[in-house]
Design a protein that fits this description.
With 286 residues, this protein is α/β, with parallel strands linked by helices. It has one domain: Rossmann fold, CATH 3.40.50. Helices cover 41% and strands 22% of the residues. The strands form three sheets. An eight-stranded mixed sheet has the order 5-4-3-8-9-11-10-12, sandwiched between helices. Strands 1-2 form a two-stranded antiparallel ribbon. A hairpin with a 2-residue loop joins strand 6 and strand 7. The longest helix is centred in the N-terminal third of the chain and has 15 residues. The two termini are 26 Å apart.
Length: 286
């Protein structure tokens, strides 16, 4: 049934959304973001190298034991480990180039100090986020140690030095990361995976939610992150039409008390927090 919902929901969005090019967007800042970032069709300097890595992964026949804490897949149930080839993971799990490049442009516009990504997979999207946030820090959360190790190799090949990954069930690692260290409330460090990771500051500039595709988990993660959002923060929720439950989560996020405006792009939803924006839900076709 979710497959049918996905097809009809995406078709309905395509029929009802508009290619606005920013027209009808009242905030000058938001208009510029829509007109010159979301609808920007220029190519950027680092994309070729990242897409070369994507093509390498699509050819890689190496087998990994992947633990999935999310909704599961045909390869195994949620919380189980399954043997999967890297090429199969890349084919089914990597964000399409068009969407990943849009995230790059958003981060490049924002110039964030801290970017959080829930769901590292093979690290291709993370690499684009890190390239755009060249002077910032990108922290990605991944349930599977094997996938995290592959992502680190991707970043090494690309010379990415400002990305890090925290492994383990995001249900626990995200909340731990966002809380002060129990050893010292003022301490800027906390322990993860037997290594020292700097603690999150109060403000999360950009967040990508692309991990556990269930309504309950998505709303829980968003609630934790939204408590650390600032007026110019941008949160992106991927696969909002993946299932009925994910679309319900997106509709609830639109009504979150800290969210002032949202942009529905079909497969992705963007949540904005600036109180100066007119409360409005935009539907756009890209």
């Amino acid at each position: 049934m979710d497959i049918l919902f996905r097809i009809f929901s995406r078709a309905f969005h395509a029929l009802t959304a508009r290619n606005t090019l920013g027209h009808g967007v009242h905030s000058p800042y938001l208009y510029n973001m829509v007109r010159f970032v979301i609808y920007d069709d220029n190519r950027y300097y680092c994309w070729d190298a990242v897409e070369k890595e994507r093509r390498r992964l699509l050819r890689a026949t190496k087998t990994l034991s992947v633990t999935d804490y999310g909704t599961g897949s045909s390869f195994g149930s949620a919380g189980s480990a399954a043997l999967r080839r890297v090429c199969d993971i890349a084919r089914t799990s990597l964000m399409p180039p068009r969407d990943a490049h849009l995230l790059f442009r958003l981060v490049n516009m924002l110039r964030p100090s801290l970017v959080l990504e829930l769901g590292t997979s093979l690290g291709i999207t993370t690499a684009l986020l890190a390239a755009a946030a060249a002077k910032g820090r990108v922290v990605s959360f991944e349930g599977s140690t094997a996938l995290a190790d592959e992502a680190r190799q991707v970043w090494k090949h690309l010379g990415i030095a400002n990305a890090e990954v925290i492994t383990g069930n995001i249900d626990s690692t995200l909340e731990q990361f966002l809380q002060p260290s129990p050893q010292s409330p003022n301490s800027p460090v906390q322990q993860f995976n037997n290594s020292t990771i700097q603690q999150s500051p109060n403000l999360i500039d950009f967040a990508l939610l692309d991990a556990n595709h269930t309504e309950e988990a998505t709303l829980r993660y968003f609630g934790l992150l939204a408590a650390h959002a600032g007026p110019k923060s941008i949160f992106v929720l991927d696969d909002i039409r993946y299932s009925r439950s994910m679309y319900r989560a997106w509709k609830q996020i639109r009504r979150h008390p800290r969210v002032t405006s949202t942009i529905d792009l079909g497969d992705m939803g963007i949540a904005l927090f600036d109180p100066d924006y007119l409360p409005r839900h935009y539907k756009m076709r890209i």
